[in-house]
Design a protein that fits this description.
six-stranded mixed sheet; globular; alpha+beta; 2 domains; 447 residues; 40% helix; 20% strand; single chain; six-stranded antiparallel β-barrel; 12 strands
Length: 447
């Protein structure tokens, strides 16, 4: 009996050492949300081709799984919006009682893009025409041309036994299967689509509008000295801001709707593997409107580009950097605004506590993160997350992981380099107790 106990302890310790070693070698084995990104690209604007090319070449966000099912861009002019569409959308929003954060009502939004208010309707039409939600579900279950499914991708991303899950579906045990339910909550439900609308506009246009407003107010001042000072100030601001361009990005975040009721219908009415092919089930899945994408919210970001400040970079290179950083910036805003879209990041080291997250994700210093330990429930086999404390970003040691061109440093006017004194660290450092922490534990930002 003693030998068995000792052997068990050794096995546990040895397994823990192997697990720790694997996590030191690679901290990538954790469950991530899945993402498909799209660009609306119809209108003409300065340097459009350069911006579109930069969007296509932008690195995919490494904290998400790629879940592409369609092209990466579409033309919104193919989905015209009528007054009836606007009325129906307004009624639906009222009935649902939804409140989506409005980033489209600022004075400048209408100047930059006067169709922003119609984009959620256009996106809905695009989703309906392409059956986007069906395609996202089909990819999760590795759907073949004959309509059959398997659990291989879910097993791979969720670290499940795919064969066991598939066998339980075949036995009709899907409704009560804990692993299938967990996969729905942890993986399928956390499937997102981001639709971005980008413009690249001359700063002179906005500077002129700002100047004209300032001059109008200045000319109403009765005291000559004060009036002249206000006029000179307006002209000075105009001269300082009129050169170059600005990248404007508005992104809409959608989430795939998946719950127990939808899962039950899927496994009962649509599921089939290669041992039981049913043409009626294939047709039913092709035609169903059961699967939908819901609008979570939207955010916008702006980056200013001044060509004169860069001696060694071409205008195209500057535009590329500004475009990709602007995309990263709006994604970071979406993560901070909507908890459901927040990512988890593995701890890289514990002395000091570091993680591969930084300025690209919008860190400025002082942000708080919760530490999560992945624990497997011995009865269900499901991974649970146990809170192990909190840590805070050290404002003096934030990793500068923003997009860069090889061999060239390009600084944008809004980079705020003075607020980031140390850009040489290879991972962001956190303040807090490292007791009982180990590499591979996950962190998630909290408010």
């Amino acid at each position: 009996m003693k030998k068995i106990i000792v052997s068990s302890i050794i096995l546990v310790l040895f397994g823990g050492l192997i697990w720790a070693q694997k996590n030191n070698e690679s901290l990538q084995n954790y469950r991530r949300s899945s993402l498909h990104t799209l660009l609306m690209e119809s209108e003409n604007f300065p340097n459009k081709d350069t911006i579109i090319r930069a969007y296509y070449e932008a690195p995919f966000p490494d904290k998400y799984n790629e879940h592409f099912v369609l092209e990466k861009s579409f033309n919104p002019l193919n989905f015209q919006v009528t007054d009836a569409d606007r009325l129906a959308d307004s009624i639906n929003q009222t009935k649902a009682g939804k409140f989506i954060k409005n980033v489209l009502s600022t004075a400048t939004s209408g100047i930059i893009d006067n169709q922003l208010k119609d984009y959620p309707i256009i996106i809905r039409k695009y989703f309906d025409a392409t059956k986007m939600a069906n395609l996202l579900v089909a990819k999760w279950f590795n759907r073949k041309a004959d309509g059959t499914f398997d659990m291989n991708l879910i097993g791979e991303r969720g670290f499940y036994d795919a064969s066991e899950m598939q066998a339980n579906i075949a036995k009709g045990a899907a409704r009560g299967d804990a692993l299938l339910s967990d996969a729905g909550e942890e993986l399928i439900k956390n499937t997102f689509v981001i639709i971005s609308k980008m413009n690249f506009v001359s700063n002179e246009k906005m500077a002129a509008i700002t100047r004209d407003i300032a001059l109008s107010k200045a000319n109403q001042i009765t005291t000559e000295l004060v009036r002249n000072t206000a006029i000179k100030s307006a002209e000075k601001v105009y001269e300082k801001t009129k050169d170059g361009y600005s990248v404007w990005t508005t992104s809409f975040l959608y989430q795939l709707e998946w719950n127990d009721s939808i899962a039950a219908i899927f496994y009962q009415d649509f599921w089939m593997d290669n041992s039981n092919i049913d043409k009626n089930k294939k047709q039913a899945f092709d035609n169903t409107n059961l699967f939908q994408l819901k609008l979570v919210g939207s955010e916008k970001a702006t980056s200013m580009v001044l060509f004169s400040s860069q001696d060694k970079a071409t205008p195209e290179e500057i535009i590329k950097v500004a475009t990709i950083r602007n995309i990263d910036r709006v994604y970071a805003k979406l993560q901070k605004s909507y908890d459901v879209f927040k990512t988890k990041t593995p701890i890289s080291s514990i002395d000091p506590i570091t993680a591969k997250i930084g300025r690209k994700e919008g860190l400025e210093g002082g942000e708080k993160f919760e530490i999560l330990e992945q624990v497997v429930d011995s009865k269900t086999g499901i991974i649970k997350y146990v809170s192990k404390g909190r840590i805070t970003v050290d404002k003096d040691q934030i990793w500068d992981n923003r997009f860069k061109l090889d061999g060239k440093k390009i600084e944008l006017p809004d980079d705020n380099e003075e607020a980031m004194p140390n850009s040489n660290v290879s991972a962001t450092v956190f303040k807090g107790s490292s007791k009982n922490l180990y590499p591979g534990m996950l962190i998630k930002q909290v408010k």
